[in-house]
Structure formats: structure tokens, C-alpha cells
Amino acid sequence: MFENNLAFAQQQDQKDTLNKYREKFLIPTNNKGEEMVYLCGNSLGLQPKRTSKYVEQELKDWAKFGVEGHTDAKHPWLPYHEFLTNSMAKIVGAKPSEVVIMNSLTANLHFMMVSFYQPTKTKHKIVIESDAFPSDKYAVESQLKFHGFDPKEGLILWTPPKGEELCKVLDLENILKEQGDEIALIMIGSTNYYTGQSFPLKKITNLGHQHNCIVGFDLAHGVGNIQPNLHDSGADFAVWCTYKYLNSGPGSLGGCFVHERHEQNPNLKRFTGWWGHNKQTRFNMRHDFDVLSGAEGWQLSNPSILSMAAIRASLDVFEEAEFENIRLKSIKLTGYLEYLINELNDERINMITPKNPKERGCQLSIQVRNADKNLHTRLTNADVISDWREPDVIRVAPAPLYNSFEDVFEFVKRLKEVLN
Ligand SMILES: Cc1ncc(COP(=O)(O)O)c(C=O)c1O
Questions:
Q1: Partners of 243 in the beta sheet?
Q2: Mean of the pLDDT values across residues 67-79?
Q3: What spacing in Å lies between the alpha carbon of 241 and ligand 1's midpoint?
Q4: Chain centroid, CA 258 distance in Å
Q5: Nearest protein Cα to ligand 1, atom 8
């Protein structure tokens, strides 16, 4: 199906209906002005060209209206987050009332745990995958401590079988069989940042719910990459950032999902702020807190409009391209990357990421045995932007909206040169 030559890669680009989207992004260049091979959307997505226009509009409206921009801006700031809701809901497979853009990822994770981690003396343990992103681990550990538990006892790591890199659902099943009565929360990265492994969210949720555990997901590496179908998965909550595959700029606001079955639950504790208050009476200022229904009720502060403008720009690109098409291209593009890497036939290379496209997004984690960071430096010197994870893994993520088959071909060509 694939061929190992530049002409083939270029032909695939010509046939690709999403190829035109590459031009809608700013691709970083070297000091000669030549485009780099950018395969780092798993870390920071590239800037859509339209973003500056969207952000400038808000700057102009701020200059023109001052505070009145809350109601008079072209896109009024008071309800600004609502302009993002429908597109965001589609991308994560949720109902609009189940999603909201607010805060940043780790902050949202804590706010979700305030509501959904309600430990008791006997049922207080938390399960995370052993190679969870450090911020997630720190967050759940600190929640355990906050509630008076010792993370050494309360944190259960879902670990791959000895000598393997990928977690097996069977092992999670066993953890639940043995300790389900003591587990309050399962909090897993939908797509692991290190291995690129995407987990079966619905299966994990069902398993957790069979044991009366709350199930939440961190979609940092899943959103805009795989379709998590959050509503159907039945997950209780999810959180994500928008600066990776959602291309909305460094440190941009995060997103949050709360399943609709929790919408009207008055027993859920939460930390509150005025942005979660009834919109009709929010500015009366003196009312008792009257929570908005749905995910919006978890908002605390009035959000950064400049960040939301960048998110809106990016989501508009997703709307136009349609996520189903993006995912289809992604499967092919990453398949091509995998094929070319296999073609290298290099014994030092070990692909950590699952081979089954249903168990991964666009990222491949390539272990290069006996390599050190010099390898990555040489790749960078060859105008490839990828990322390195100690001790010996290069992570590359061809993002289907702006990466081409030619990018992938060029990357493997340069990797081969660097390896030799
Ligand atoms: C899986 C995962 N979780 C959490 C974070 C932390 O995100 P933030 O700094 O936006 O809170 C990241 C950041 O890259 C991440 O990849």
C-alpha cells in the first residue's frame, strides 16, 4: 500500500483532500527561511494564520469599547465561551451542555476532583497509569494528602507487564477485582503522553462503574487527535488542554467535560466562583450562589478572551476540515510514518506505540536503544522539530491538519542520516 520514495509521498499529498489546510498554518522556518519538519504537535500545535485576525479583533474591540466590549464587541465577551461550545463538544463527542472551556488543565483536574473524588475511610484509593504525565500524578497525590491519606498506600499504579511498555486492560481488571472496594477514582490519560497508547475509554469506564468508582480522563494527548466519544463512554469527567492538537497557543485555556447525569446532582460538592452563577442574575452581585446547570456551572472566573479568540480560530479550522476527515488522514499519515521507520530495518529502533491504529493517535514513540540526547540534537540541527524523552525515546506526531506525507518522508530520511 505504501512506497518508500519521495514521489509516492508527494503523490499522497496531491490526493489528500486536507492538503490545503497546511497553507492555513504558520510553519516554523530555519535561519535560511526554509520550512522545518515540524512533528511536535503533541507538545505545542502550530499557529493557524487566522489566529492573529481573531485576536486582533478583540484587541480592536477592547480599544474601541473598553468595558462595553462585554456586550458590544463583535463577539461579546460575556457569553464568549459559548461561541466555542458546539465545536468543542463535537471534537470530544459530547453534548454541548457537557463541555466548557475554562482555566488550565491541571487546575481543571483539581476542580473536577473536588467534585468527583469524595473518598471515605474505606474507599479512597486512586488508580492512574504508571507512566502518567507528572502533573497528573502530582495532582492526584496531593488530593490524597489533602484528604488525609498517604499516597504510598492510596495511589495505585496501573503498570505494564514486566519488560513491556504498554498497559493491558486485563491488568486494570485485576486491580479492580482485588481492590475495587477500596478504589474511589480511576483517572487515566486517554492517550498516554509517553507511549502514545490510546485507551478504550468506554471499557475502562464500564469497568470502573461496575466497582462503583468514579472515572475521569485527561485528554491532553487525545483531544483533536482521537475521537474520545466522551458522552457515550459514560466517563464522569474529563479535562484537556488546547495548545497541543487544538493549536490554540502556549498556555491557552483548557477544557472540561462533566457527564450530563451529574448536571442536576445537588449533592456534588464543588468550588464555586461568580462565572458559575446564573447568567441572568450574575451582575446583581448579592444573590446567593445559584449554580448554572451543566459543565458551565463549574466555571469560576471570567475567562481570558484573548486566549478564547485563539481557540475559536482553531476550532473554526476543525469545523471546516471536519474531525472525521482529520482522523482518517491521521491514521494514514501515521501508518506511513510507521511503514518508513520499519523500512529502516534498524535493530536499534523499537516502536513503543501500539501497532493497531485504534490504540493510538498520530504520535509514534520511537525508542532508539543506546542513543542519548545527542541524537535528538542532531535531528534538530537537521531542521527536524521533534521531542525527546529520557532515556532514549523520540516522540514524533504528524498532525494531519498541517503535516504532509512529504514531511513524514523527510523526517525518516533525516533520521536515517543522523542514525548513520
Ligand atoms: C497529559 C498531560 N497532563 C497534564 C499536563 C499539564 O498541563 P497544564 O500545564 O496545562 O496544566 C500536560 C502538559 O503537557 C500533559 O501532557
A1: none
A2: 98
A3: 7
A4: 16
A5: 105
Is any ligand 1 atom within 6 A of the Cβ of residue 104? Answer: yes
Task: Compute the C-alpha angle 196/201/204, nearest 5°.
Answer: 110
DSSP 44-91: -PPEETTHHHHHHHHHHHHHHHGGGHHHHSSS-STTTTHHHHHHHHHH
Residues 197-246: tens digit of each pLDDT: 999 999 999 999 999 999 999 999 999 999 999 999 999 999 999 999 99
Reduce the DSSP state of residue 367 to 3 states and report it.
strand
Integer-rounded Cα Rg, in Å, for the chain is: 22
From 101, 241, 252, mutation site for ligand 1 pocket: most ligand atoms within 8 A of C-beta = 241
**Ligand 1 contacts CB of residue 131 (under 6 A):** no
Cell of 108: 481543571
CB within 8 Å of 148: residues ≥ 6 apart: none
pLDDT, tens only, 356-409: 999 999 999 999 999 989 999 999 999 999 999 999 999 999 999 999 999 999
Residues forming beta bridges with residue 340, ordered by sequence position: none
Residue 266 has pLDDT above 80, yes or no: no
Residue 265 has what pLDDT?
A: 84
Q: Whose CA is nearest to atom 5 of ligand 1?
A: 135
Ligand 1 pocket residue status of 43, Cβ below 6 Å? no
* Atom of ligand 1 lying closest to residue 108 CA: 11
Q: Check pocket membership of 296 for ligand 1, CB cut-off 6 A.
A: no
Answer whether 220 contacts ligand 1 (Cβ < 6 A).
yes
